[in-house]
Amino acid sequence: MTFSILGRCRRSGAFGCALATSSMAAGSRCHFVAPGLGAVLSQARSDPTLGALGIARLAAGRSAAETLADMIAATPHAAWRQLAVLDAAGGIAEFTGEKVAPPKGAVVGEDAVALGNAVANDRVVGAILAGFAAQPDAPLADRLIAALEAGLDSGGELEPLRSAALRIAVPGVPFTPIDLRVDLAETPIAELRRYWTLWAPMADGYVERALHPDSAPATADIERPR
């Protein structure tokens, strides 16, 4: 019971994913990103090992379609999985198993793919993609959260949402500088938006502390209200 999106920013080369669900801790097991490689989703009856496998296959030079085929071949339970891959060239591949709870599906667009299972109606997944496309010049994080907001406005999922998550990989940063998760909240997408508003002005400072500690700003300077 999850709706989600993978997307990339052509200007910056960043890859990201965002999701919302009624389940706890989906942000720890369903979406995967790697700088310069792409992003992977493994949801429905999620298997985190498939997401990790997807990133490894992208790192080995496999395309989105080839990576998806490898993920499907690696599990005897593909019928329960909903998967998507976005590769470094912008290639996209997606799969929804026959046993995944309906309404379900995926919609592919420019630089993005939206997925959903056990959503409220057949319009939700398309609305997610439309939300991402609505502001092409906005930062990737804002576009991904806007996609979730659009999915919610179109009906969301069948059960009340409780969790939301956002992950973005940035070229030249060997870790995930944007990795935010909301669990057990009454309005998790709104909370995710609030978290991002708080984290956005801090993120670069913490990247500098990791990569260039001698010249990086102090914590108090990074977190000072602006």
What does this entry look like structurally?
The protein is α+β, with helices and mostly antiparallel strands and 226 residues long. The chain is 33% helix and 27% strand. It has 6 helices and 10 strands. The strands form 2 sheets. A 6-stranded antiparallel beta sheet has the order 7-8-1-2-9-10, with helices on one face. The termini are far apart.
Which helices and strands occur, and which strands form pairs?
Elements: E1 2-8, E2 15-21, E3 31-34, E4 38-44, H1 48-59, H2 64-73, E5 81-87, E6 92-96, E7 104-109, E8 112-117, H3 124-133, H4 140-153, E9 163-169, E10 178-182, H5 188-211, H6 219-222
Antiparallel strand pairs: 1-2, 1-8, 2-9, 3-4, 4-5, 5-6, 7-8, 9-10
Helix pairs in contact: 1-2, 3-4, 4-5
